[in-house]
Write a structure and sequence with these properties.
- It contains 24 helices and 27 strands.
- It has 821 residues and is α/β, with parallel strands linked by helices.
- The strands form 6 sheets. It has a 13-stranded parallel β-sheet, covered by helices on one side. It has a 5-stranded parallel β-sheet with strand order 6-7-8-5-9, sandwiched between helices.
- Helix 2 packs parallel to helix 5 and helix 7 crosses helix 8.
- It is globular and about 70 Å long.
- The two termini are 33 Å apart.
């Protein structure tokens, strides 16, 4: 079956089941769910009579039923979001509740107009005037032939999604998510869909070498209309990677299949529905490396479809589609798209030269994209040199994938030395993980001595050359933009290239000491020459839990190390002893990829890091500061992400201003135990930027906020319990940017906000403030206000009083997708 037939009655039944599920499980939505249940039960009998009437309704009646069906479909999607929403995400729960209220109003309005009653009367009249009754299956086929893709009510009240019957053509287009390179992709989609649609569940595979387009195909299937229709929009996409945290992935699959999300442990892996709700669901597992990992994730699953994307054939060969390299004509089209911005060689350019360069990429999409982008806007003589370099990088005895590394290394010659070094730094990050732009830019600022503007320009340049993928975000690159919740990603093969180039030569002589994947312990080659110092400037370690014994064989000396990245998955972690000897360390990144915050041990060595300028802690318990007596004089930037704060800034006898005398940038994000911002933070008079964001329990700001005389940027977005801004905020003499977006409990701005003479920009999108503030007309430096359309009127007087002021309608840009890792 290529397309599932949806019936109005079945949609209503499914919605009813979902609402019963919500009423029993999600108490915050219980009352609205119960009211919706009553409404659906009211209309069900009428819908069923229309559904099984066998009558062909007039077009206007079909349109009216279509309105109801669309509403019910939206209701189904909404209930899916409600069931999958996380309890701690207060803002999302608030917005979903509002949408459920709108759904109730839409269905109520439909009933008030008695449209269903009129339609039923027409059904009875048509029955009386006609003696023919069509079979439901015949009616479905007739509807498909006569009005493919349109909605038909009759013989079951179906909604028919348009079936794609046109043959695939050589159409190459670039979208925001993937490059659709014509025949190969369309043929692959047809074959995989045929396999999945012709079976009732099971495990299917997409296999092929790195860079051939497996993930592109899987992503396109995820968004394909026929696939979404067949699986009723119940699709989960998970990246497994070479070093998976299987317990976390199992828990997420459990949550997707059962609706019970947010659990940390799966008690019994025999996942069966108690409610009797049986729906088709698709789980796409991308980048699976081993049979063991696949078996662990898929054993004892209930009836569902699993699509495994891997370099190896892990599914049954008869249920696996092998992604092949592109044909010559497809290769040239994709290559030209990246090199010239069109699908063919432009007039006057040497076609034979283009054909030879594209031929060196051996039909591999990733190589074609990277090589094409590196030659964009270059003269023909430069192309001839590139062809020579590509030709030299192809030893006859190497595999296709190994040759790719040589080809792509040649394409890096187009980069200047700094950009090339920045590209190599990307190998320090774990595979298949989103890389926070903030960490990346901080690294480049410190280790390559770049200004922030130059570092950002380098990031954009690497993205334009297809060497990384920069996330789409309206804030990116704008004035006062923050980067800690904006990310870049990198293809596995590009990461392999960075590792391949960084790991050349003797271990002690490398400028970067990087672990390709997560291991139980450090590579043994690292510990063989501990009597000799290591020259690495960047050290990246990726392990599980580490204790004192785990470090015992690695008493290493890093006299030149400036950046240390510690990635691990555990609830406790002992910091490496050699950290205390990294006297030149400037950037320290500690990230726990486990499911709960980890406790760090031996944090007392931090005061020895006298040159440390940037500290990033993620998903850990922030260490207590009362043992810290030696100030971290050079620490300028500190980011606490998904951490447990544990009142670390508000301990008796602790003067945080003396511990961090030069801290200029403090970020606290997604820290759910932060209820009030400690007043001691206001003693950090050197603070230039303060970001307290996505903290669901934060309800109050300190009244002595005015002591932050150097503060220019104040971000408070997505703090749903924050009810008021202290009037002292109006005493900040340097404040230029205020972000209170998604603070849904804020009802007004401070009356004296007009005192902020330096304020240039306010972001208050999705913030329900509707009262005008008279003093705002005195905001003489204000240049930009972002707000929702329905509250823009409160700025009308200010817009007339302040020359050059721009009032911008809000654009949705906040996302929690990155938490899905």
């Amino acid at each position: 079956m290529a397309v599932t037939d949806f019936f109005a009655g079945e949609i209503a039944t499914e919605l009813l089941k979902q609402l019963i599920f919500i009423s029993a499980k999600a108490w915050k939505y219980k009352s609205i769910a119960d009211r919706l249940i009553t409404l659906i039960e009211t209309i069900q009998p009428t819908i069923h009579e229309i559904q099984y009437s066998g009558v062909e309704l007039p077009a206007h009646r079909q349109a009216q039923i279509g309105m109801l069906v669309n509403t019910l479909e939206k209701g189904n999607k909404l209930t899916e979001k409600v069931l999958s929403s996380r309890r701690w995400n207060m803002y999302r729960q608030f917005t979903l509740a509002k949408k459920m209220e709108k759904l109730e109003k839409s269905i109520s309005d439909f009933l008030k107009n008695q449209i269903l009653t009129h339609i039923l009367a027409d059904v009875h009249q048509l029955r009386a005037n006609a003696d023919v009754r069509f079979d439901r299956v015949e009616r479905s086929l007739t509807g498909l032939e006569e009005q493919l893709g349109s909605m038909k009510i009759g013989g079951g009240g179906m909604i028919r999604d348009a079936m794609k019957i046109a043959e695939a053509t050589m159409e190459i287009e670039t979208s925001s998510d993937c490059e659709k390179f014509g025949v190969g992709l369309e043929m692959g989609k047809r074959k995989v869909k045929k396999m999945m649609f012709n079976a009732e569940g099971g495990i299917f595979g997409i296999s092929g070498m790195g860079g051939v387009g497996k993930t592109t195909l899987a992503r396109d299937l995820e968004h394909d209309n026929e696939v979404r229709c067949y699986f009723e929009n119940k699709i989960m996409f998970l990246t497994v990677s070479q070093s998976p945290v299987l317990d976390e992935l199992r828990a997420r699959i459990w949550g997707f299949l059962t609706g019970y999300e947010g659990i940390n442990h799966v008690p019994d892996w025999n996942l069966q529905y108690d409610s009797g709700v049986k729906t088709k669901k698709l789980v796409i597992l991308d980048d699976v490396w081993t049979r063991k990992a696949l078996d662990s994730l898929t054993s004892n699953l209930p009836s569902c479809t699993i699509l495994v994307v891997s370099r190896s054939k892990l599914a049954d060969p008869n249920a696996t589609y092998d992604v092949e390299v592109l044909r010559e004509d497809e290769s040239i089209s994709l290559f030209c798209l990246c090199a010239f911005g069109q699908k063919s060689v432009p007039p006057g350019f040497d076609k034979d030269l283009v054909k030879k360069v594209a031929g060196e990429c051996k039909g591999l999409p990733l190589a074609l994209k990277v090589t094409g982008a590196s030659l964009k806007d270059r003269p023909e003589m430069y192309w001839k040199g590139a062809l020579q370099r590509l030709s030299k990088g192809e030893p006859a005895d190497e595999t296709h994938e190994s040759r790719l590394l040589h080809h792509m290394e040649a394409s890096l010659t187009d980069l200047d030395e700094t950009a090339r070094e920045c590209f190599l730094d990307l190998g320090a990050f774990p595979e298949d993980r989103k890389i926070p732009v903030d960490i990346l830019i901080n690294m480049w600022i410190e280790v390559h001595d770049l200004d922030e503007e130059v570092a950002f320009a380098t990031l954009v340049d690497l993205s334009h050359k297809n060497l990384l993928t920069l996330g789409k975000d309206p804030r990116l690159g704008s004035t006062y933009a923050s980067y800690y919740d904006v990310f870049v990603t990198q293809h596995d093969v590009l990461r392999d290239l960075a590792l391949h180039l960084s790991n050349k030569g003797k271990v002690n002589r490398r400028e970067r000491l990087l672990m390709p994947k997560r291991e139980e312990e450090l590579p043994k080659t690292w510990g063989k020459n501990c009597d000799e110092p290591y020259n690495a400037q960047i050290v990246s370690i990726h392990t599980w839990e580490m204790d004192e014994m785990s470090w015992s064989d690695f008493d290493m000396d890093f006299p030149k190390a400036e950046i240390l990245m510690l990635n691990f998955s555990s609830d406790k972690y002992v910091l490496p002893p050699f950290l205390s000897k990294m006297t030149r360390l400037k950037v320290l990144v500690i990230i726990n990829n486990g499911m709960s915050p980890a406790t760090l041990h031996d944090f007392s060595m931090f005061p020895n890091l006298s040159k440390l300028r940037s500290l990033w802690l993620e998903r850990v318990h922030v260490p207590e500061l009362y043992n810290t007596t030696i100030p971290m004089k050079h620490l300028h930037k500190m980011s606490l992400i998904l951490c447990k704060i544990n009142n670390c800034f508000d301990q008796t006898g602790v003067d945080v201003s003396s511990i961090f005398p030069k801290l200029g940038d403090l970020t606290i994000d997604h820290c759910d135990d932060l209820v009030t911002l400690p007043s001691t933070i206001c003693k950090m008079t050197s603070l230039n930027s303060l970001s307290i964001t996505n903290c669901p329990r934060l309800s109050e700001l300190p009244k002595n906020l005015s002591k932050l005389q150097a503060l220019e940027l104040l971000r408070l977005y997505a703090c749903p319990e924050l009810k008021a801004l202290p009037v002292e905020i109006c005493e900040l003499p340097q404040l230029k940017y205020l972000d209170i977006s998604q603070c849904v409990s804020l009802s007004c701005l401070p009356e004296d906000i007009g005192k902020l003479k330096t304020l240039e920009k306010i972001d208050m999108r999705e913030c329900y403030i509707s009262d005008r503030v008279r003093s705002a007309v005195s905001l003489e430096s204000l240049r930009h206000v972002i707000c929702d359309t329905d509250v823009a009127f409160i700025w009308e007087e200010v817009e007339r009083a302040v020359p050059g002021l721009k009032i911008e309608a809000a654009e949705k840009c906040f996302s929690l997708d990155w938490l899905d890792e």
